[in-house]
């Protein structure tokens, strides 16, 4: 655009401003550079992860002594985190954009069930994947239209969708578990490339794409603007409604991907699949530093949030502990993470406020 | 006007009542109370003959004193000087009537006195020596331009803010309410412009909000309803059911509920902040009737309004504020000439430093607005702005100016009329921005900024897509462009465009918003109250920025409540009043008093006593 307009007659101050990465590099401190930003921001969660691993090693030293077991267990954790991780990426976008999507679990169920009907399976692997993705996107678009143009509150619109979509899934499947006869789909979960499960690649790919989308594209910039101050975004010429619509479609797309991953893992789909995924995804996004009121959040943080949860699940599994206790610990971790963030945010703003005055 | 008057016939009828006013009224239907109504009706011409002491006698004093207009009067002195004059007129009348309860001041007693009240906020001296004296049973009008300190003064009285210096005496006692509740308990109720009612509670629940009648934690609904009904009857509105939801009431009805709340606290002083702004014409009549009845019961009213005719109608005395100081106190509301009031409100002490202005060459209009209308907001607005021209719209809050600006920008849909920029029809924000229009909205924080984001991202909010390649943002280019603009705008602190914008001062935040449109290559900039919340020093810089923009060929359409700002900056001035553009003149051919007069009264003649 035309930035030279600014120059003309205004008294020119010596403008050259060094970009901060350069400054940081000059100081030779990698940790303070932009590149280390995700790491720095998520130090707390990384700490929690390390603590969890240490607890695991302390409680089951005989298992953690076995390097192969540790490797395989790590992949198990990642694999368990894969589908929910993909959903969380979409959820993070929606929350940063100032919304919420309670219907992700239900969308997965519809997409999973629809793509495993006998009719769909007859179109082969591509047909099934295509169906899951399209169903996800379409349901997301319906959410988006209701919210953007029907002016429903996101909570209400997606709550209604959560109920309705489960109904649709039950209707399609006739409440039966639909077994996938497609060997390609079924083998995704069991295949490893270079010793790493394919599901982990998919997660990594989605996370990477999400990170780039949020931090390096105009789409991501709009998302932050729309969530941070919708009125300011609108008055700056951003089409807030259309962008909101896209965010829910994106969340739906992630659900479609997750539906394939879960179908592959179970070699079947049913109306009750991905139960309570919405809560896990929201919790992961929140403990990853995403502000529930919008405008701020990180993909990497959300990923760490997911990893913390699946590590806890794994920890309880290897110690043969009940899921009840596991849920209590999860709840405690959500509260603790948000408290820590609030505290950190407050002290940060105080600090900034002081330096400005 | 209920200032006491020895000769007033209604007095003896009123006096026994005030102590038990609340209970007495229901049996005596409000409309039938003769003294206040009759008194009002006859006031038009015979007032001066009947009661020279109360209304007309003080007039010569201030007039003689302030005769040399525009000359900066010694602050604070007029207040002190005027007071004895009025007081002398009244004292004889007050003394022989001590029949009220001791805590119930008699009509005409001074209930509230402010002396040298000062309130500072970081960077602003909002109140800088306010004198004010309010008597029981009078309607005391507070007049002043936006930013004169009226709102701060109200908030000090309402217990929201605490005065830094000066004394406030309320019913003979020093008064420093620690909270709004404390002020309420002391008997000072405030009715704010934006009524602070809970829409989903009933009338009775709102009236007694915060001091609900209860027994052992259970609400006494019937007793509350009964008392509410009594109060509503006292206000002459017993047709409003106490059980009705406030949401279902029209604005006038809500105002009645606010007043009922004040009376439920047994308020002795009711502060009304522009109560007529939300009312239709006949509702204002009704409001005045209620105010008259309240004052007849000995309640004092501080009435704030920009409409001079209202002040003349309902007011007894006027105190004028300017730049946080009392510039004239206790002027008679009816007989003080408009010129006098206006000159008390203007006559600057704040320095406005406007850069000299080169005249613009006549070019084709850049922006053309024809017959733009939004029902209930503004009607039939037509204007044009040329490249390099600054056009200013002067008008009060609520005159429809912000709505007009937002509609021109496409942020609101016009009912009728057209907006064209460079021959392109504008109907949406997206279209406006693409055609080269930009806007700095009135509420900077809620409408323009991403407070958590760095300066450069706020600066490129409308143009980041232009720096992007294939959908990928180029933050390096953005930072460089933002840094360049920041330097050109002399943004402070210098140099770091990665700072969160929240850490900047108001003036510098505004520069970022202006810079945003510079980066976008804007041809026409709409500025809504560009210097609101901006301190004096930064103002001068913003003025310079606006001038430089115009010099570069950008057309500017600005709105401001501060008349000197419009006159100092603009080439051409439009005056807006109640949704209509009523006057247009080159800035060099119109003065502040004229504009202010147009803004408030609509014409120079109106409201001027014969």
TrEMBL record, chain A:
Signal peptide: none annotated. The keyword Cell membrane applies. Pfam families: BPD_transp_2 (PF02653). InterPro entries: ABC_transp_permease. Residues 1-12 have a biased composition (Polar residues). Its main location: membrane. Keywords: Cell membrane, Membrane, Transmembrane, Transmembrane helix. GO terms for cellular component: plasma membrane. CDD domains: TM_PBP1_transp_AraH_like. Residues 1-25 are annotated as: Disordered. The chain crosses the membrane at residues 42-61, 81-114, 126-146, 152-172, 193-214, 245-264, 299-318. It is a multi-pass membrane protein. GO terms for molecular function: transmembrane transporter activity. It comes from the Bacteria. It is found in: Cell membrane. This is Sugar ABC transporter permease. It comes from Actinoplanes nipponensis.
UniProtKB/TrEMBL annotation, chain B:
SUPFAM superfamilies: P-loop containing nucleoside triphosphate hydrolases (SSF52540). GO terms for molecular function: ATP binding; ATP hydrolysis activity. Residues 112-348, 361-603 form the ABC transporter domain. The keyword Translocase does not apply. Residues 1-108 are annotated as: Disordered. The keyword Nucleotide-binding applies. InterPro entries: AAA+_ATPase (IPR003593), ABC_carbohydrate_import_ATPase (IPR050107), ABC_transporter-like_ATP-bd (IPR003439), ABC_transporter-like_CS (IPR017871), P-loop_NTPase (IPR027417). Keywords: ATP-binding, Nucleotide-binding, Repeat, Transport. Residues 9-24 have a biased composition (Low complexity). Residues 52-68 have a biased composition (Basic and acidic residues). Transmembrane segments: none annotated. PANTHER family: CARBOHYDRATE TRANSPORT ATP-BINDING PROTEIN MG119-RELATED (PTHR43790), GALACTOFURANOSE TRANSPORTER ATP-BINDING PROTEIN YTFR (PTHR43790:SF9). This is Sugar ABC transporter ATP-binding protein. The lineage of its organism: Bacteria, Bacillati, Actinomycetota, Actinomycetes, Micromonosporales.
């Amino acid at each position: 655009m035309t930035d030279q307009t600014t120059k003309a007659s205004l008294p020119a101050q010596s403008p050259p401003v060094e970009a901060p990465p350069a400054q940081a590099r000059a100081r030779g401190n990698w940790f303070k550079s932009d590149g280390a930003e995700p790491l720095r921001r998520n130090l707390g969660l990384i700490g929690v992860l390390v603590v969890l691993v240490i607890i695991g090693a302390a409680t089951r030293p005989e298992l953690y002594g076995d390097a192969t077991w540790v490797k395989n267990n790590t992949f198990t954790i990642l694999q368990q985190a894969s589908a929910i991780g993909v959903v969380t990426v979409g959820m993070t976008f929606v929350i940063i954009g100032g919304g919420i999507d309670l219907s992700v679990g239900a969308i997965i169920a519809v997409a999973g069930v629809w793509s495993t009907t006998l009719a769909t399976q007859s179109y082969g692997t591509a047909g099934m994947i295509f169906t899951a993705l399209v169903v996800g996107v379409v349901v997301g678009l319906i959410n988006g239209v209701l919210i953007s143009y029907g002016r429903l509150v996101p909570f209400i619109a997606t709550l209604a969708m959560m109920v309705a979509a489960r109904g649709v899934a039950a209707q399609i499947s006739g409440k039966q578990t639909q077994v996938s006869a497609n060997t390609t789909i079924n083998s995704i979960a069991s295949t490893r490339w270079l010793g790493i499960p394919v599901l982990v690649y998919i997660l990594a790919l989605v996370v990477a794409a999400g990170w780039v989308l949020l931090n390096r594209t105009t789409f991501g910039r709009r998302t932050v603007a729309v969530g941070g101050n919708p009125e300011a975004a609108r008055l700056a010429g951003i089409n807030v409604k259309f962008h909101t619509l896209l965010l829910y479609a994106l969340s739906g797309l992630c659900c479609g991907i997750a539906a394939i991953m879960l179908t592959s893992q179970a070699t079947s789909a049913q109306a009750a699949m991905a139960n309570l995924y919405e809560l896990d995804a929201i919790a992961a996004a929140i403990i990853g530093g995403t502000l529930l009121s919008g405008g701020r959040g990180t993909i990497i943080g959300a990923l760490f949030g997911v990893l913390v949860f699946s590590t806890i699940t794994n920890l309880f599994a290897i110690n043969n502990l009940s899921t009840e206790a596991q849920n209590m610990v999860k709840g405690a971790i959500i509260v603790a993470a948000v408290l820590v963030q609030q505290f950190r945010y407050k002290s940060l703003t105080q600090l900034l406020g002081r330096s400005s005055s | 006007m209920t200032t006491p008057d020895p000769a007033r016939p209604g007095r003896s009828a009123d006096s026994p009542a005030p102590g038990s006013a609340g209970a007495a009224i229901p049996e005596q239907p409000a409309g039938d109370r003769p003294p206040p109504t009759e008194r009002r009706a006859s006031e038009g011409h015979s007032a001066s003959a009947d009661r020279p002491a109360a209304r007309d006698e003080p007039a010569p004093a201030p007039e003689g004193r302030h005769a040399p207009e525009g000359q900066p009067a010694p602050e604070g002195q007029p207040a002190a000087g005027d007071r004895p004059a009025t007081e002398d007129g009244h004292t004889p009348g007050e003394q022989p009537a001590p029949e009220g309860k001791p805590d119930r001041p008699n009509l005409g007693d001074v209930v509230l006195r402010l002396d040298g009240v000062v309130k500072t906020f970081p960077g602003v001296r909002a109140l800088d020596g306010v004198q004010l004296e309010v008597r029981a049973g009078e309607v005391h009008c507070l007049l002043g331009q936006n930013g004169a300190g009226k709102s701060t003064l109200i908030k000090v009285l309402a217990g929201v803010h605490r005065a830094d210096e000066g004394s406030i005496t309320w019913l003979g006692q020093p008064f420093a309410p620690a909270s709004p509740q404390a002020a309420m308990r002391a008997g000072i109720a405030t009715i704010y412009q934006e009524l602070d009612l809970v829409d989903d509670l009933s009338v009775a629940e709102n009236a007694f909000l915060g001091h609900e009648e209860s027994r052992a934690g259970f609400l006494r609904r019937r007793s509350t309803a009964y008392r509410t009904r009594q109060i509503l009857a006292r206000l002459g509105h017993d047709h409003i059911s106490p059980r009705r939801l406030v949401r279902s009431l029209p604005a006038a009805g809500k105002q009645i509920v606010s007043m009922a709340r004040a009376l439920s606290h047994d308020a002795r002083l009711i502060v009304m902040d522009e109560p007529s702004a939300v009312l239709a014409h006949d509702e204002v009549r009704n409001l005045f009737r209620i105010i008259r009845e309240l004052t007849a019961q000995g309640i004092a009213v501080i009435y704030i309004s920009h409409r001079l005719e209202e002040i003349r109608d309902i007011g007894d005395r006027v105190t004028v504020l300017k730049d946080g100081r009392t510039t004239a106190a206790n002027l008679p509301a009816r007989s003080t000439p408009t010129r006098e009031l206006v000159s008390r409100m203007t006559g600057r002490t704040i320095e406005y430093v406007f850069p000299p202005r080169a005249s613009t060459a006549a070019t084709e209009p850049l922006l053309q607005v024809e017959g733009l209308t939004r029902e209930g907001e503004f009607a039939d607005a037509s204007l044009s702005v040329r490249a390099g021209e600054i056009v200013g719209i002067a008008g009060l809050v609520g005159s429809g100016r912000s709505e007009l600006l937002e509609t021109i920008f496409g942020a609101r849909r016009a009912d009728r009329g057209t907006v064209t920029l460079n021959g392109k029809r504008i109907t949406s924000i997206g279209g406006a921005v693409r055609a080269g229009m930009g806007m700095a909205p009135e509420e900077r924080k809620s409408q323009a900024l991403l407070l958590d984001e760095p300066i450069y991202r706020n600066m490129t909010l409308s143009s980041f897509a232009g720096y992007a390649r294939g959908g990928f943002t180029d933050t390096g280019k953005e930072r460089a462009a933002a840094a360049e603009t920041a330097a050109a705008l002399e943004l402070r602190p210098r140099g770091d465009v990665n700072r969160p914008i929240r850490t900047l001062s108001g003036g510098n935040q505004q520069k970022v918003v202006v810079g945003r449109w510079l980066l976008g290559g804007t041809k026409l900039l709409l500025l809504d109250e560009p210097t609101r919340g901006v301190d004096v020093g930064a103002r001068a810089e913003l003025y310079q920025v606006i001038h430089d923009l115009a010099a570069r060929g950008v057309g500017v359409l600005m709105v401001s409540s501060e008349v000197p700002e419009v006159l100092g900056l603009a080439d051409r001035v439009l005056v807006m009043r109640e949704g209509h553009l009523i006057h247009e003149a080159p800035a060099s051919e119109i003065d502040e008093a004229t504009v202010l007069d147009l803004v408030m009264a609509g014409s120079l003649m109106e409201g001027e006593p014969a």
